[in-house]
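Posting this for the archive.
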Amino acid sequence: MTTTARAQGATVWLTGLPSAGKTTVARLLGERLKAEGHRVEILDGDEIRRFLSAGLGFSRADRNTNVQRIGLVSEVLARNGVLSLVPVIAPYADSREAVRKRHEASSTPYVEVHVATPVQVCGERDVKGLYARQAAGQLVGLTGVDDPYEPPVDPDLVLATQHQTPTESADAVHALLAERGLL
């Protein structure tokens, strides 16, 4: 009888402002990890909000509920051997801390990555046109502009995406995962 080693799962939470590069880094990292034979899921904040958190608004309470739902799904996936990549703004420190504690309670690895792109650079990238809509008065509550973003105090990794390519950012996350024995 042969036994196979159970795949190591983990949550990699990429937090940062809109247009910081979270999803781009997650997709590049996900492609690399899949090519290496890992089980990977990307829990993109926009997709989750559209399907799992449909009907929630952008109040602090609704944003917290959204983050907790994503955290639950990610923890379950990670606990079952999946590398769960989570590119989500998650603007509030207490919401992210609750997700971290959920992972700790189940002894599930959790890695917090701050995609620390300055708001000015995010505004120039403006991938979804949010900054332009906010500047034109068509959008209120844009995280980092007229709604708070509480940067992580002690993240496991900080990515200054304005100084590196998306591939270099993804490589940095990969290196951290390898260093922690999660690959």
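The chain has a mean pLDDT of 93. The helical segments are 22-35, 45-51, 60-79, 93-105, 119-125, 130-135, 166-179.
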